[in-house]
């Protein structure tokens, strides 16, 4: 591939090489090279002084895509790398050919979805190894790491993509939906290792076989089960074959999940859990930019108790935690809570602890977990609840407040753990803030009469034309869409004056037959804001048109807003196929809402 000299401008059809800074012609193969080049630069610490691209080698018909040298002064090839769009067998043969024709004893093949690392001994024997050395590291030092040696992942989602495609094609688990739970177990092992061991155990060294690696990871998982009994059953075990476990460890051992951007971790989790969600349960991941917009509008304080009753992978919870931590950091690790703003309907026992004339309370959140103890989550899907727990394990110590239950079921049917967390004296716990994107769809109705009769919106309503209003009848419906019942359940779990941000299908807000739902919302809450989102928001998963509705629960002393904020987002940062685009109206809506509030 012809290389153009480096310059300030990159012509159309070309890209700048991540390792060397040279400008090269773009192609599908080039995309794979740049993905790997970014990892080599940021994770393995190679630079343009120790790397060459498109290197001609005597005896080979093709150029070697990347050659890594020992240092700037020693131009003897140490590692040869081939990127191609072929299959694993073809890649392995190409690397072996490159090793035979160069002094290098290490080779890598990468096609954007899978990776092979090979070592050629002095005797000419070629064997697969779990990883290659970073710059300045020897072969024997691979896998000999302390926590301080780990680095943030430059592109965690790509690493997870590579692991996913490798496992799907090569492991003894061929069903996509079974890979998710297994990967969650391994991620917990990785997180547990980072949090508890100074000398890393989640490693794969060159001098050990895959069975040795797998045995050590399985011991880690036994520790995980003891540390997270609410996340794993005592009889759970790792079922991946040893070679696959070694592969996963080799891909992850250099990076620190706890050092990596938390949004990236959430994206990566969804690489594995996504294939098991096909929309048949009305579950769709909420785009991060929509989550962040909703959280910014709700604006949680560190003292607020926040709930997502359909938490999925935990994005609303993590974004809320980050917002709360920002406020803590602004106040140097302390947050001043103005107790004089408590609603008149607030718990009297809480008020009795305030000694006059004190009107503020200082809350110290200087520890690592911060306000994560105020974060609560519910999800009826066992694996999704696990993901949320894992996500919270990275962000703080709030995983114990995430339970696997159906938020719409009667609390008496919940586990004792869920009752302890989510009820008070037998009644539903009242939260300051609820943020959620509930499952929606008419094809997944709640049909249990015992459940429906507990909800006002579980009954048939008739429109009384003379009074221009809807009236609830005594007839229980045969079924009700879950998003409708979630509105009522969320309002039930808010304290008077509490705020809620909920994603709802536009049919609830506009269809004539849903007038009783809108009436119910306005009778029980003040409408604070409505943000119309583009049809692409949840594509390619579903084309259902949605809006974000912000409500404040009514109560004594809770005044309605003078005006309701309304906005229309025309672009959401990705197209109908899910491909990123630069146009995104959600950040601008955040700014406009803040200006609206300050008027």
UniProtKB/TrEMBL annotation:
Domain DNA methylase adenine-specific: 261-598
Ranges for domain Type I restriction enzyme R protein N-terminal: 30-133
PROSITE patterns, alphabetized: N6_MTASE
GO BP, one annotated term: methylation
Transcription is among the record's keywords: no
Alphabetized UniProt keyword annotations: Methyltransferase, Restriction system, Transferase
Protein name: N-6 DNA methylase
Organism: Haloarcula salina
Phylogenetic lineage: Archaea, Methanobacteriati, Methanobacteriota, Stenosarchaea group, Halobacteria
